[in-house]
Amino acid sequence: MSNSTEMTPPPDWDDDERMNFMFSDFKENRDVNTTDWDSKMDFWTALVVKSCRDRGTVCVNLQELNKTFRRKEKSPLGLATVLQSMARCGKIQRESEFAANVDCGWLSWGVGLLLVKPLKWTFSTLLGSGRVPLEESFVVIELVKEKATELLRVYRSSEFASRSILSFQELCALSSDVCVDESTMCMALLQLQRDKQVMVSLHEGEKIVKFSQPGQDRVSTVSDVDIGIYQLQRSEKLLGERVEKLGLEADKCREEAKLLLSEGKKSQALRCLRGRKRVEKRADNLFAKLETIRGILDRIAQSQTDKMVMQAYQAGVSALRLSLKDVTVERAENLVDQIQELCDTQDEVNQTISTGVTGADEDIDELEEELKSLLDESKPDSISGLPEVPTKPLRPSREPSLPGNDLLTSLPAVPYSHLNVTDEQLEEELNQLTLTDSGYQQKKITSPAKRLEPAQ
What is the pTM for the complete model shown? Predict the structure, then answer.
């Protein structure tokens, strides 16, 4: 690849086999091998756009491409076909055709040449011819739109954003970081002109550029008011430069007077001081004029703000009139009466519904009272006859004992009496036990405590 270009080579640039295929010419008939034809076209189309973007330009020609893509002393053979295909797809356009598509009212022979020069105004057809001129310049549409957007952004973020008109020289200095050369800036201006964001005109042989302001969808034509404001702004700039220059000259006279006085040349020092006074007087006069111009510009800016506010008021009045077109006081009173009547009806309905719900609640309360009385009557008498649960505290034990001893000692004593049973009686009970086959079966024995009488 040529050393004069700053384009980054593609990843497969060192692949000889692939590059031999890419550097070969296109087949005359695309239908022979559609896949190879399309892949080669896509490769070179993307590379052409990338090379222009890397170099910061929006224009390209066949001669530059042959130098840029030169590899091992060989240039691609199908670049002319690539340019023709890109032109058919609308990706590139000749400079002359690109400029001619701008508004015919603005693009006269004189004004058009202000931006695009040297520009070859040839209208020969490119498509259909088998030959592409080496020096024919083409505009990459994708890139010129990017540059136009960036140029507009730089203007609106600069100190000149409050000024709608700039000189061509001021714009060149402002866009030096965006556009690599004047031709690129001209192409960007033509794109902005096509988008109705810029208007280029001549004033006393000087090129001026008017930008659309924020809130405007398109730029207006350059009017006498715009020219007057531009002249005042230019006068302000010139007077400011002169006042600054006179201030430096006065300081210089003062330094010379000090030097002459130190050398003992008093008369020459006085002449320098007189010259300093004259310079300061001229500077004061110019400064007064400068302040007058600034005051006028401030009033113009205020008037434009007032005009914008008045337009907003007018739009508001028109919108309010349309919105109140079918609204009258009688209709409003009628609507209010209807709303009040509906609200009263709704209140009556709510009151009726609430009353019905309250009656139902009272019936439910009566039924619950009756159910409670039935439950009370159905309780057994045995339950009601039970003794009351003692509420007195248990008597504590005086002697220490194991846990639970206090509770046992506090209970009433169990009745106890000695049973008087003799040995004869016990033996008689044993004799009543009989021996069975499966073992001993004990007959039911009456408890001695019930059968025997206690001893007297």
Answer: 0.58
